[in-house]
Amino acid sequence: MSPTSATPSAGRPLSPGAIALMLMLCLSWGFNQIAVKLVLPDVPPMLQALCRSAGALPVLLIIGWFRGVRFFERDGTLRPGLLNGLIFGIEFVLIYQGLRLTSASRAVVFLYIAPFFVALGSYILLGERLRPVQWAGLGLSFAGVALAIGVPQANVDAKVLLGDLLIVAGGALWAATTLIVKATRLIHAPAEKGMGYQVALSIPIFVLAAWIGGEKVTHMPSPLSLALMAYQSFWVVGLTFTLWFALVKAYSASKLSAFTFITPLFGVVASYFIMHDTVTLAFGAAALLVIAGLYLVNKPETARAQVAPDPNV
């Protein structure tokens, strides 16, 4: 959700290839929480997060090296970058712990409440104006979360609700990293450098969290678990982020951002078929409210080009 400046190609219509690529990215991000859940029986959450960051960092460095990014150049991003890295690490401690307690379908919906916090934080902290349709989107998203958490459901107990709240807190911290980018010199940093701060600093945080939790890998992970961890590291964190920014540079950022509402929809559907998650009527209605709200918050403004959010890494 870090902003990217509009380019001269902002009015360029999306090609069929760009639409197909954007749908593939949304599907990848929606499947990410399912991948974490599937690996949990073999690799505890903090060690899994550690492997993800440790695997993604070389990918970001290599991509940045090919693109001529100067990672160690003094550009005024060190302090906000370190702060963002700290928040990023805590964010994923909350998200991975939350995934131990709640279902993948609930997690993907609650995590994608992050644009709610970004829009609200931009209004309160950065003085950005919100259009009426965005206020309506915030209201729908809030109503969806309130419905999902507040309405009693047979398959939801105190443990699941705690997991839900951890995911929501993780989404709020994800939004905080975006607001820091918008308010500091990180907004001008290359994507690989901004993401590099987050991934690199999260590694010692995950090491500490795994040590405090006494996590250990007691057996050799299955080939499926190893493949899913590679998927998280190399594909989700290392490559889809770069592909997203390539699309933003080539096409209208506002048109691309409208696609992001599809991600939680993909996540819920995939969780139903892969994880066999129970989708109650109340949660289904809540998910639709959150997805509709996310769409309205990111709905393109016809009068002028807007900025677009980063994907959920």
Brief sketch in words of this structure:
Helix content is about 70%, strand content about 0%. The protein is mainly α.
Helices, strands, pairings?
Layout: H1 16-39, H2 45-66, H3 78-101, H4 104-111, H5 114-125, H6 132-150, H7 158-183, H8 191-212, H9 223-250, H10 253-257, H11 262-275, H12 281-297
Helix pairs in contact: 1-4, 1-9, 1-11, 2-8, 2-9, 3-7, 3-8, 4-7, 4-11, 5-7, 6-12, 11-12
Which key features would you list for this structure?
mainly alpha; 12 helices; disordered N terminus; 313 residues
Characterization of the model:
The structure is a single chain. By secondary structure, this protein is mainly alpha-helical. 71% of the residues lie in helices and 0% in strands. It is built from twelve helices and no strands. Mean pLDDT is 83; it is low at 1-10 and 303-309.
What does the average pLDDT come to? 83
Which structural class do you get from the secondary structure elements? mainly alpha
Order of helices and strands: HHHHHHHHHHHH
**Overall form:** globular
Query: Poorly predicted ranges (pLDDT <50, ≥5 residues)?
Result: 1-10, 303-309
User: What is the number of helical segments per DSSP (H or I, 4+ residues)?
Assistant: 12
Sheet having the most strands: none
Question: Over all CA atoms, what is the radius of gyration?
Answer: 19 Å
Strand content: under 5%
Number of strands: 0
Give the termini distance in whole angstroms.
10 Å
Helix content: over 70%
